[in-house]
Amino acid sequence: MIQKIKPILGSFFYAGFLPNAPGTWGSFFALFPIYFVGVYAPWYGMALLALLCSLITIWVSEECERVWGGDPSPLVMDEFAGQSMAFIAIPFSGVISYDIMLLVTGFFIFRFFDIKKPLGVDELQQLPGGLGILIDDLLAGFYAFLCLKIILFLI
């Protein structure tokens, strides 16, 4: 039973099976819980969300690789973890227009770093198992976080 749940969680409830760019879909659907946590949770809520998604990714990755092959594209929980990392310590205001702008900006910056894999992101993907699947997304999320902090400082 538990083995059947792992691919469901890993694909973020089948978001990873949407056509064309499953990682982008996973990152997009992650924005909804990220918004909720950013607005309604205490200051450490986003860190807990990123940690939870990271632990889930590591836990499900072996079964997902067994079912779908190495670093499988339907496995998008790692994108959820990385996208969450991009918003750690980023203040949400509760003003919808501002928060949507923040989410959209963070989404595109994260996707840039996740797809292009610059500055060491690609090398980390070579690590074995769930850690290799996860760590490149966390670093992409960290780079997106730094960019968001700079943007927020400048505006």
Strand content: under 5%
H/E order of the elements? HHHHHHH
Shape: globular
Overall pLDDT metric = 93
Cα-to-Cα separation, first versus last residue: 50 Å
**Individual helix count:** 7
> Which regions are unreliable across 5 or more consecutive residues at pLDDT < 50?
none
* Helix content bin: over 70%
For the largest beta-sheet, the strand count, sense and barrel status come to: none
Counting structural domains, the number is 1
Pfam families: PgpA (PF04608)
Organism: Fodinibius roseus
Transmembrane segments: 12-35, 41-60, 87-113, 133-154
Protein name: Phosphatidylglycerophosphatase
Report what the structure shows.
The protein is about 70% helix and about 0% strand. The protein is mainly α. It has one domain (about 1-155). Helix 1 (about 1-10) crosses helix 3 (about 45-70). The protein is globular, with a radius of gyration of 15 Å. The model has no long low-confidence stretch (mean pLDDT about 95).
Structural features:
155 residues, mainly alpha, 7 helices, 72% helix, globular, Phosphatidylglycerophosphatase, transmembrane helix, PgpA-like_sf
Please write out the topology.
Elements: H1 2-10, H2 22-40, H3 45-68, H4 77-85, H5 96-116, H6 121-124, H7 129-154
Helix pairs in contact: 1-3, 2-4, 2-5, 3-4, 3-7, 4-7, 5-7
Summed up:
The chain is built from 7 helices and no strands. Keywords: Membrane, Transmembrane, Transmembrane helix.
